[in-house]
Structures are given as C-alpha cells and as structure tokens.
C-alpha cells in the first residue's frame, strides 16, 4: 500500500470510458504529473487521488476501510469528502491542481524506492554480552533509532530472566548509535489485519504487562546508560531502574498524549514519587521533553556526563561497582524495592488495561496514521 501511494502517477491508470470532453487535458495533466520533480506532499497527493477517482468513477462507492487500514482509509476519506461532485468538475479540478504544481523535465524515476524492510535476516536487534561482572543488554537497531519491535520485547524479557541468574553483579541497558531508543516501534500496530484489531490490542497488553513485570521483579542492580535521546517506554521504565547515567546529549520524552496513548512502565506511580506530581504531569500528560540536566534535577537521572568522556567514565565506574559483593548488592536492592513490588504489579496491570483501550481509540489510530504517512510520504 505504501508503495502504491508513494506517488500517484503509478496509480493513475485512466479508464477510457470515463474520459469525455476534457479527455485531452486530463491525459495531459496525468503526463504532467509524471514530470514533477518535487514530491507535492501527502495532502496534495490525496486530493489528486480523490479527484481522479471522482472524475473516473463518480462518488465514492466502496466500503469504508477499517481504522487500522491507515492508507486506504486516508484515500477513502479524501474521495468520500468529494460527495456528489460531478465527474466533469472533478476532472477540471484535477487538471487545475496539476497545473498549479511546478513541472520539471526530470522523469519520475527520481522517486525514491520504498523503504527497506525493518529487519535484515540474521540481524540482532538486541545484543547481550557479559563481561567484568556486567551483563550488558544493548538496543541494536540504530537505523530505526533503536525502536522496539514485538520480537525485541520478547528478547528483552528472555535476557532479563537469564541475567537474573547469571554470574554478573549488575545488569546494564544501553543503545547502539545516536539514540538510546525511540521507544515502541510504531509499526507494531500498523500491519494489523482489520479483523484482528481487538485481539492484537489484547495481545499487546499481555506482552507489555509481562515485559514491565520482568523489570519490576529483576533482582540485581539495574543500570541505564543513556547514550542519546530516549522516547516513550524506555523513559517510563527508568523509574524501575536503580541507577541512570546519561550523556549530556540525551533527552527524555514521553509524548503519550500526542500519540493518543497513556503512560506505562509504572510511570503513573513512579514518576510522581520521583519528581512530585506537578513535574510528573508536565512530562506524562503534557509531553514536555527534558534535557539530561533537567531529568537529573528532577531525580530521574542519577548523573550527567559530558558526551566526550561519557563512555569511558561510565564504564570505568560500572566495572568498579561490579566488583562489589554480589549478594550484598542484591539484598540491598531487595530492601529498597520489596515494599513496592505488590503495588508496582497492580499499577502495571492497570496501565496495561487502560492502554489496551487507548490502542483502539480514534485518537491513537490517527496518531499512528500520521506517523505512517509521514514515513511513507504517501
Ligand atoms: C501484538 C502486537 C505487539 C505490540 C508490542 C507491544 C506494544 C507495547 C507498547 C508499549 C507502549 C509504548 C509506548 C511508547 O514507546 S510511545 C513512543 C513511541 N515512539 C515515538 O513516538 C517516536 C517516533 N519517532 C520519531 O518521532 C522520530 O523518528 C524520532 C524523533 C525518534 C527521530 O527523528 P529523526 O528525524 O531524527 O529520524 P527519523 O524519523 O528519520 O528516524 C529514522 C528511522 O527510524 C524510524 N523510527 C524512529 N523511531 C521509530 C519508532 N518509534 N517506530 C518506528 N520507526 C521509527 C523512522 O521511521 C525512520 O525510518 P525510515 O528511515 O525507514 O523512514
């Protein structure tokens, strides 16, 4: 679908029977469109699509696609919005719109090919290593800003279970590349067959609950080494970490309202405790993005380091901490966290239930559609 919508010239196959008085202009406009050098943008392309359909087939006559069939729904909405506009008027409007766009002598071969598949066969999106008493779990999808796919959630759950009983003293999360992680991969929700939306939301809620539970129950010191911007779930989870070290180029962003979603990772409970309700609300409800310094001032981050020395300083320090007696580390963590565990599990369950409903909401669907159409540039 994305490929079909990438540029309307590929789909403007004319129905000969539909062409009447302005057949030549219409045909010319279609050819002119092929010569456009600049992508005219999604809005214009949807208009062109709708006018073309109206001019050739008349008023919208197909069933409304499901909410999660983002691209077809956008096309259907645009066509349907033309109501009973006569075919001749639609044809004229199409011609006018095309001639208002700047022509070029370049051919449409300039159009970029569709984006490559997210995961290369055999690639490792989560890399787990163990050395010097430290188990390191690294997000390794730098070309996608380390966005977390469904399989990555599962791999992380597995990695945490393994790390809880391995020989390491501490466990560290970090990201490869310029981002720590851009959070949930938004395409997790866009390739869903229309008849299984509710089931997908339910499965996502179950997976999310299990994922966050693995952090709540993790018995050893959990450290985040935040090498760059962090978005969404990787930020909310920080309330369940014991130590958070950040580069001064890191940022912390939880744009849940913008996405039609709601907080997860127990942040609705941990953030007000960590930074007070007013500051938590600013992040979790209003989506204020924090710098590393601001996050540190609010107590979400333990310490900020200059980017130039970040890796060296942090790992030197962590290697020294990892030499501390492992049982003592574990017991002290247990003392600090155990009173909260029951509450955290209840908060997690509640947040997942609320999110399950949010994922089915029109607000969330629209936000996902915006992301997909921005990516595909239609
Ligand atoms: C059965 C179903 C199971 C579901 C699994 C469970 C679900 C649990 C859900 C838990 C709830 C979690 C909530 C969150 O985490 S909310 C936060 C979601 N993240 C975002 O909203 C960030 C979206 N991305 C962006 O805003 C920008 O990409 C960003 C600011 C991060 C970077 O911008 P920049 O301009 O620098 O770079 P690009 O946009 O060009 O990004 C490079 C490529 O990476 C792709 N990308 C980046 N982030 C994501 C993402 N989160 N999801 C998918 N893809 C992402 C981006 O599209 C670019 O790809 P292309 O080069 O192919 O275009």
TrEMBL record:
The keyword Phosphoprotein applies. Residues 22-107 form the ACB domain. Pathway: Lipid metabolism; fatty acid beta-oxidation. Residues 101-124 are annotated as: Disordered. It comes from the Eukaryota. CDD domains: crotonase-like. GO terms for cellular component: mitochondrion; peroxisomal matrix. The keyword Transmembrane helix does not apply. It is found in: Mitochondrion; Peroxisome matrix. It catalyses: (3E)-nonenoyl-CoA = (2E)-nonenoyl-CoA; (3E)-tetradecenoyl-CoA = (2E)-tetradecenoyl-CoA; a (3Z)-enoyl-CoA = a 4-saturated (2E)-enoyl-CoA; (2E)-tetradecenoyl-CoA = (3Z)-tetradecenoyl-CoA. Able to isomerize both 3-cis and 3-trans double bonds into the 2-trans form in a range of enoyl-CoA species. Has a preference for 3-trans substrates. This is Enoyl-CoA delta isomerase 2. The lineage of its organism: Eukaryota, Metazoa, Chordata, Craniata, Vertebrata.
């Amino acid at each position: 679908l994305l490929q079909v919508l990438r540029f309307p010239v590929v789909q403007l196959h004319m129905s000969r029977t539909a062409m009447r008085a302005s057949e030549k202009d219409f045909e010319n406009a279609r050819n002119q469109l092929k010569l456009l050098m600049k992508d005219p943008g999604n809005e214009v392309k949807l208009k062109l699509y709708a006018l073309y359909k109206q001019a050739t087939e008349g008023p919208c006559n197909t069933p409304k696609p499901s909410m999660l069939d983002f691209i077809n729904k956008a096309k259907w909405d645009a066509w349907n919005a033309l109501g009973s506009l006569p075919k001749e008027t639609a044809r004229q409007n199409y011609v006018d719109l095309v001639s208002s766009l700047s022509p070029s002598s370049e051919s449409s071969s300039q159009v970029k090919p569709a984006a490559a598949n997210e995961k290369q066969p055999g690639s490792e999106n989560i890399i787990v290593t163990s050395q010097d008493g430290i188990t390191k779990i690294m997000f390794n999808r730098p070309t996608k800003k380390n966005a977390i796919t469904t399989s990555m959630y599962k791999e992380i759950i597995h990695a945490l279970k393994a790390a809880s009983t391995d020989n390491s003293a501490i466990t560290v999360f970090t990201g490869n590349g310029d981002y720590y992680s851009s959070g949930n991969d938004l395409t997790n929700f866009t390739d869903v067959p229309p008849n299984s939306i509710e089931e997908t939301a339910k499965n996502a809620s179950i997976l999310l609950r299990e994922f966050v539970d693995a952090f709540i129950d993790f018995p050893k010191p959990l450290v985040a080494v935040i090498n760059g911007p962090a978005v969404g779930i990787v930020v909310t989870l920080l309330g369940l970490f014991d130590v958070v070290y950040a580069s001064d180029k890191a940022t912390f962003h939880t744009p849940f309202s913008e996405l039609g979603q709601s907080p997860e990772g127990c942040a609705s409970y941990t953030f007000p405790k960590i930074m007070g309700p007013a500051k938590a609300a600013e992040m979790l409800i209003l989506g204020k993005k924090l710098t590393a310094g601001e996050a540190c001032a609010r107590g979400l981050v333990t310490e900020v380091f200059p980017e130039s020395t970040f890796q060296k300083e942090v790992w030197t320090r962590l290697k020294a901490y990892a030499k501390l007696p492992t049982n003592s580390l574990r017991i002290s963590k247990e003392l600090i966290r155990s009173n909260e565990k029951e509450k955290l599990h209840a908060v997690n369950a509640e947040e997942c239930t609320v999110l399950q409903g949010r994922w089915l909401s029109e607000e969330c669907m629209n936000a996902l559609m915006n992301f997909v159409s921005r990516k595909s540039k239609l």
